[in-house]
Amino acid sequence: MADPQPDQNSPAAIAQSRQRAQSRQRALSRRRLLGGTAYTAGALALPVGLTACEKPSTGGESGGTVTFGSNYSDEVPKKAIAEVMAASGLDVRVNTVDHNTFQENITRYLQATPDDIFSWFSGFRMQYFAAQGLATDISDVWQSIGGDFSPAMKKASTGSDGKQYFVPFYYYPWAVFYRKSVFQEKGYQIPKTWDDFKALAAKMRTDGLIPIAMADKDGWPAMGTFDYINMRANGYDFHVSLMAGKESWEDSRVKQVFSLWRELLPYNQPGANGRTWQEAAQSLGQKQTGMYLLGMFVGQQFQGEAAADLDFFPFPQIAEAHGQDAVEAPIDGFMISSKVKNLDGAKELLRYLASAKAQNAYLGSDPNNVATSNSADASGYNALQKKAVELVSGAKQISQFLDRDTRPDFASTVMIPSLQSFLSSPKDVNGLCKRIESQKKTIFAS
């Protein structure tokens, strides 16, 4: 695969990376807006890059159409969610927007004319919009669906006021993915420790492989590497406290994270800031790269024999005190906007999406996640799904991912450009941490 950005360390490359990060915060171009949005005729285009629609006067058992703002834009999940909605028995109008566009413009979308239901994430990001008055309390929905979810799932769906605002649909762990056939052919062993991991990467490079696939064009994939190094080196509690703005980014423990990460960079696929996660996944599929740290959704890029050849192992231990205790396993699901037009219909749709029927239907088309409902049928899970359940159930702590465990404005305006800058120019860790801390203080003070 051609390398879109061969020299990350040049001044031009660094400037280009920063320019890309800044441009994501501005209005999207017409090309990206039209290319990323699939919706029915009559939709009203909003300047923020998302669309919404007016409630029709007829249709649906709930007395009208339920509009659904969806970030399921990739081919596999888009098809799966369409099948789920079609089987709901309700009149659902789906407004699909490019995943990154949706995420980067979500606040303005919710403040403008949002859909009734929208896809979103659990944890801090859910709590943030609930606290801002941009989501509807669905505690009454939980009274009828709560029996199908674990206490942990309910906690992940609960706002800081103790009310529920979120229905979990599936989760997917982040781990290091690899091709079983490559490991078998080369005699590679699964690394347990940081030193083992680096030694394996060095051996892969000797064997002519690019050891670690890497992509950060969209700004978020590199966050997973930061999270795991931080949790393995400093522990889950410190990581959560850092994400909450309670720790200094100039702390020696944070600088250690970047120093450790820097040890991996010689083994990384070059040009990460110019590559999408899908392109990096394809390099793993083509056996050009040996390992790839990503969420289980990476399986969407593998079909047939290649899918059966895909496997993963937990991110290796760095500090013995923290072992491999923490697992990054984000939960995706749905919320009702505060400007909902068809509240009864929206709640009816949420009850359906919480059901085993809906989750089984989705995973039948996109078997790269794990259902959240205790009643979901796991008998048909593939090997990766079964291994994912084992990994998450055995974890002592579960994180939700950097851009979900912290304020969305901090994640998008500070961490995306900061991590891209680090990948381009990793030498000045002190300066990087100082800049992050300065911006953090301003954002968390607001």
Q: How would you describe this structure to a colleague?
A:
By secondary structure, the chain is an alpha/beta fold. It folds into 2 domains: 27-171 and 332-375, D-Maltodextrin-Binding Protein, domain 2, CATH 3.40.190.10; 174-328 and 403-444, 3-Layer(aba) Sandwich (D-Maltodextrin-Binding Protein, domain 2), CATH 3.40.190. 46% of the residues lie in helices and 14% in strands. It contains 21 helices and 15 strands. The protein has helices spanning 11-23, 30-36, 75-86, 99-104, 106-111, 124-131, 139-145, 151-156, 180-186, 194-206, 221-234, 236-243, 252-264, 277-285, 304-308, 343-353, 356-365, 383-393, 402-405, 408-424, 429-444, and strands spanning 37-38, 44-45, 51-52, 66-70, 92-97, 117-121, 167-171, 174-179, 210-213, 289-295, 310-313, 326-328, 331-336, 370-371, 397-399. The protein has a 7-stranded mixed beta sheet with strand order 1-5-4-6-13-7-14. The chain has a 4-stranded mixed beta sheet with strand order 9-10-8-11. The radius of gyration is 21 Å and the shape is globular. The chain starts with 10 loop residues before the first helix and ends with a helix. 50% of the residues are buried.
User: Could you say what the CATH architecture of the largest domain is?
Assistant: 3-Layer(aba) Sandwich
Question: Could you report the average pLDDT, rounded to the nearest whole number?
Answer: 87
| Number of helices in the DSSP assignment | 21
Number of strands: 15
Tell me the domain tally: 2
Q: Choose one word for the global shape.
A: globular
Give the full name of the CATH homologous superfamily of the largest domain: Periplasmic binding protein-like II
Please give the radius of gyration in angstroms.
21 Å
What gap, in angstroms, lies between the N and C termini?
44 Å
Largest sheet: 7 strands, mixed
Low-pLDDT regions: 1-62
> What is the CATH fold-level name of the largest domain?
D-Maltodextrin-Binding Protein, domain 2
Helix content: 40-55%
CATH class of the largest domain: Alpha Beta
Protein name: Carbohydrate ABC transporter substrate-binding protein
Pfam family, one: SBP_bac_1
Biased composition (Polar residues): 1-11
Organism: Plantactinospora alkalitolerans
